[in-house]
Sequence to fold (192 residues):
Amino acid sequence: METLEKIFGSAEKVKVMRLFIFNKELSFTTKSISERAKISSSQARREVNILEKLGLIRKTRSNKAQSFTLNDKFEHLKSLERLLLEISPIHEVDMVKKISKNCRLKLFILSGVFVGNEESRADMLIVGENIQRKPLENTIKLIESLVGKELRYAALSVGEYKYRQNIGDRLIRDLLDYSHKVVLNRIGEFIK
Fold:
C-alpha cells in the first residue's frame, strides 16, 4: 500500500476510500468507519471531512445518526476505482504469513475481489491443518480493513477439502473453474 499512501497522503485515507468505493451501496457512521478500517475515531473524522470536501462522499441521515455514503456522481470515481483495484493493498506473501499464524497452511487460493471477479462465491479459500477459527477471523478482519471490503472465505481442513473436491462440491468447483490465483499449494494433485 506504500504507493497509494504516497499518492494520497496516508494509509488511513486509502482505507477509508477503499471502504466507500468497494461498498457503494452502504452508508457508514464515523464509528463504523473507524471499526471497519481499523483506524482511530479522530482519524476517521479527519479523513471523512477531507473526502467530503473533495466530493467523493456525502452526508446522509439515517435513524437520526449522521452517516456518509459514496457520491456516485464524483467525476473521477471510475478512475479512482480502477487505480485502487490495480494496486493491491496487501501483498499475497503477507497474507500467507498472517494466515499461517492461525494454521499449518496447505492451500491458499484467491478469487473474487482479488482477481476482479465480483461474481465469485468466495474471495479466499484457506485449507490447512489445526485451524484456529477465532484468530483466523481476526486475521481476515485485518485483511478486510486493508482491502476495504468484507471478504467471503472458506476455511477447510485438508480432509474436508479433499472430500469436497472428490464429491464435486459446488463451492470448490466454482472456485477452481473460474478466475482464481493459486498463491500456495502444498496439496498438489488435488488442485487444477
About this structure: The first strand starts at residue 27 and ends at 28. The chain has a mean pLDDT of 89. The two ends are 31 Å apart (CA to CA). Residues 133-147 form the longest helix (15 residues).
